[in-house]
TrEMBL record:
Secreted keyword on record: no
Positions of transmembrane segments: 20-47, 109-129, 149-169, 220-249, 269-297
UniProt entry keywords in alphabetical sequence: Amino-acid transport, Auxin signaling pathway, Membrane, Symport, Transmembrane, Transmembrane helix, Transport
An annotated GO cellular component: endomembrane system
Topology of this chain in the membrane: Multi-pass membrane protein
Native species: Linum tenue
Domain Amino acid transporter transmembrane residues, every copy: 1-298
Protein's recorded name: Amino acid transporter transmembrane domain-containing protein
One Pfam family linked to the record: Aa_trans
Localization terms from the record: Endomembrane system
């Protein structure tokens, strides 16, 4: 985690999202790679061992815990589909021809369709291979343990993907904070002034450095790294973030903007259908949030970071 934070500390100094397009493409390729490896290993496990007819988890897991696990899984799914936080930044990288709205609609359709196919394949085949013993990460922990070389390749791909994903989600936050500070304190040179620094060992290459950007982004990376190290509950925290962000950003605001733009009449059939959709998604988010909190509490109860193991 410290190595991961160190890499992010360097990448976060890149001024804007546009200069990291190569990293986004690389992360997408890595995502396909480790997903295909996980899918292939699950199919191989099914081919050699077959589908288990019964589950043995029922004896050790109560119905209440099973319900909370289902709710937490819904939160993970919500996080996986909630890309609205970076939607504007993605649209800004599009060219003017064809029209941005048409290109974005096509890209969203292809992207969501492709990820849905992979989610369903990995989820269903993985569950068939492991049943209710399926771990949060099929490629490590209590998932697969061989072949080791292929698992190492998959985990390297996963690490590279997470490096890119961190930047994709962090860059909009950086941009928002920095633009707000520039507007609020335009006379403070520490915030607004860029300094040109020449790197002698790179052929005299020059970089524009803003000291506020360096301090603020470094502090952000440090805090998130410490938080991730202290609370290494990846799936639970993702589910909680997904539950908290899914309804307002992915459902409520887009629906309200569409109603305002299309001038949908209040209490009309279309208006009621849209409001019903928003209400259902709100209930799903609340259930997912409850399951995530229950999972986090359970993880904290069983977490022993300083326990000596023989």
């Amino acid at each position: 985690m410290i190595i991961f934070g160190g890499i992010q500390l360097i990448l976060c100094q890149v001024p804007n999202f546009h200069k990291l397009s190569w990293l986004s493409i690389l992360a997408a390729v890595m995502s396909f790679a480790y997903s295909l490896i996980g899918l292939g290993l699950s199919i191989a496990k099914l081919a050699t061992e077959g589908v288990e007819a019964k589950t043995t988890t029922s004896a050790t897991v109560s119905e209440a815990e099973r319900f909370w696990r289902i709710c937490q899984a819904i939160g993970d799914i919500a996080f996986a589909y909630a890309y609205s936080t970076v939607l504007i930044e993605i649209q800004d990288t599009l060219k003017s021809s064809p029209a941005e709205n048409k290109a974005m609609k096509h890209a969203s359709f292809v992207g969501v369709s492709t990820t849905t196919v992979f989610y369903l394949l990995c989820g269903c085949v993985g569950y068939a291979a492991f049943r209710e013993h399926a771990p949060g990460d099929l490629l490590s922990g209590s998932g697969f343990d061989h072949p080791v070389w292929l698992l190492n390749v998959a985990n390297v791909c996963m690490a590279i993907h997470l490096i890119g994903a961190y930047q994709v989600f962090a860059q909009p936050i950086f941009s928002l904070v920095e633009s707000s500070c520039r507007q609020r304190w335009p006379e403070v040179k520490f915030v607004t002034m860029d300094h040109q620094i020449t790197i002698p060992f790179l052929g005299g290459t020059s970089f524009q450095v803003n000291w506020f950007r360096v301090v603020w982004r470094s502090a952000y990376v440090a805090v998130t790294t410490v938080f991730a190290t202290v609370l290494p509950f990846f799936n639970v925290l993702l589910a909680l973030i997904g539950a908290a962000s899914f309804w307002p950003l992915t459902v409520y605001f887009p629906i309200e903007m569409y109603i305002a733009r299309a001038k949908v009449l209040k209490f009309s059939f279309s208006w009621m259908c849209l409001q019903a959709l928003s209400l259902v998604c709100l209930l799903v988010s609340l259930v997912a949030a409850a399951g995530s909190v229950a999972g986090l509490i359970q993880s904290l109860k069983t977490y022993r970071p300083f326990k000596n193991e023989v």
